[in-house]
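Hi, here's the filled form for the chain we discussed.

Project: internal
Contact: R.S.
Residues: 171
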Amino acid sequence: SLNPLAFSFSSLYKGQMILASHSDDGYLGGITIYEYDYNSGVWERKFYEKGKCESGIPGCNYPWVPALGLDSSIHKNIAVAGASQILNGTSGYNGAVYVYRKDSYDVWNKAEIIHNPFPETGANFGHGVDVFEDTLVIGALGAGNEHNDSAGPGRVYIYKDGVDGFELEHT
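And the returned structure, exactly as it came back:
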């Protein structure tokens, strides 16, 4: 069963909803992404991806709030979920963004993972995400801290969808 107090941000687009939970099945540390479609007056779950953030798993900062789904966005056949607390090597809270695409069979699939192009401790890349048409905007609220322990001024990254997925266009 889901803990309704553990849902992170959700996003709606024309009868589609992406919803993230950072506490699933009574386990603080479960990370789950849901996609629902609204059909005939009922929200129907179409996609479900569950993972766990446990001690010793690379990319997880247990016991802190898990990484995936602290922000999410959906537009047409693209959904994104920020994972701002994912590690990158020795860089804590460096972050990543998971991109999901709906295929021609109406099935959602994880298409790519976008990692911080400028890795640094505390960047929190993916803390804010938004997708519209062919543009993905990613916020990194702690970026620019020059690897010290204090928070940086932050950065915004703008990506454009291309043949091989999203490509960095501007910071």
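Let me know if anything looks off before we file it.
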